[in-house]
Amino acid sequence: MARAYLNKPLTGGATLTEIGKHCATGFGRAFSHRDPFMSNNLPNLNLPIIAPSQAQKHVTHNEALRILDTVTQLAVLSDTSDTPPAVSSEGERYLVPVGGQNEWAGQDGMIASHEQGAWLFYAPRPGWRIFVIDAGLLKAFDGTGWQVVGGSLLENLTGLGIGDDTASAPFTAKLNNALWTARYATDSGTGNLTQTLNKESAANDAGFILQTDFATRAVLGLLGTDKLRMSVSADGTNFLDGLVIDNTTGITDQPNLPRFSGTTNFDNFGAADSWVKIGVNALDYNDQGRFDAGTNLFTAPVDGLYQFGGHLLFKQDASNGARLNARIVRNGTTALPGSFGRNTGGHEDGATFINTLAVARLNAGDTVELQGMFSAFSGYFQADEISFWGYKIG
Fold first, then answer.
1. What is the rounded CA–CA span in Å between residue 81 and residue 135?
2. Which of 179, 183, 256, 340 could bond to 327 as cystine, CB 3.0-4.6 Å?
């Protein structure tokens, strides 16, 4: 390595010949190609070594230090300038590109270092790495030319930690806030900001995991499916879907919304002038199991706003003169506002019905039931024509 040349006299009028007079061993400032296999030069960096009984030892010693100062921790200002700058500071280094001009002519791929008013050139060896400051690139010499390592200094890394190590993940950031912002048009950007999370197949996951003290409490994304899912967990192991959006239809579902709907497969008898709780034993759905077919009660799991509805059909007993009543009741005693209804006209067996509907704010633990009553005469609420339903709406 370290073939170094001076192609012109140094500043101050000193010539190569004059400087050479101070080099007892002939190394001096490396005015010609150096043979890396010379016995008085080291094999890798071609550093000159002091010979036994050598005079002017400091010259050889300083020459080795100069080479070390140039080629260790190697960084160049640029690798695209093919012409030496008009003004250079001591120690400035460049990587000469193809087509070097003026003092850099014929030095393609060489490391040019400005020292004592002149340009010295160093030949790289395979494996040398160099950081190009203006491009932010790391390059390596493969024996023929300089190749970019990973595209840029921060590409192709095995790990990156910001305020933390990467023991738990290849990328780790320990901080109190973060900002992602689009590059504005005024900054030569588009004004847009997008982020892509890609997975290999539909059965894989692509999403966000939200944790408390590293225990997962919620996940959002394409989790084991191509449907968008939002799920929560109390223990980090068992998850409940709060929201699922079908990617083929756009239809949104809330699989664990407190809701139920059911009918009854037997006639409910109602004595005259007595409210009776309607039995509902055939459930179409009962998310979270909040309706108990044994007690015929819906129990609110949380505080919130709920909507309920019911349908009752008259079936004649001894008389068709019975008047049909219906209501929806909270905690067994209090009718929900707007839920009471009554049939006051004449009716026919199997043709007269009454519907009821109510919206109410419930507290967790409140119960709701459907009640019916016949006025004046007893009667039956007809099997398979009774329905009761409800769900949380807010």
1. 12
2. 340
Question: Amino acid identity, residue 5?
Answer: Y
Check: CB of residue 315 under 8 Å from CB of residue 380. yes
Query: What's the gap between Cα 279 and its chain centre?
Result: 50
Amino acid letter for position 280? V
Note the pLDDT tens digit of each residue in 80-120: 999 999 888 888 989 999 999 999 999 999 999 898 889 98
Q: Record the pTM.
A: 0.57
Reported as a pLDDT band with limits 50, 70 and 90, residue 236 is: very high
Amino acid code (one letter) for 50 = I
Q: How many CB atoms lie within 10 A of CB 365?
A: 11
How high is the mean pLDDT of the chain?
Answer: 83
CATH for 259-392 is 2.60.120.40
Distances (CA, A) of 326 to 210, 249, 342: 47, 39, 7
Is the predicted pLDDT of residue 301 greater than 70, yes or no? yes
Tokens of 308: 């309920």
- For residue 160, what pLDDT is reported? 79
**From CA 278, how far away is CA 263, in angstroms rounded?**
10
Q: Measured between alpha carbons, how far is 183 from 321 in angstroms, rounded to an integer? A: 78
The pairing of strands 75-76 and 129-132 is: parallel
**Nearest alpha carbon to residue 326 among 276, 362, 361:** 276
| Dihedral sign (CA 19, 21, 23, 27) | positive
- For the chain, what's the residue count? 394
DSSP of 182-225: PPPGGGTS-S--------SSTTSEEEEEEEETTEEEEEEEEESS
Q: How are beta strands 282-287 and 228-233 bridged, if at all?
A: unpaired
- Token readout for 369 is 């039931």
- High-pLDDT (> 90) share of the chain, %: 54
Locate tokens 């280094």: which residue?
A: 93
DSSP letter, residue 167: S
Give Dmax over CA atoms of the chain in angstroms. 136
In this structure, are residues 282 and 291 in contact, taking their beta carbons and an 8 Å threshold? no
Measure Cα distances from 167 to 158, 159, 172, 193 in Å.
11, 9, 8, 30
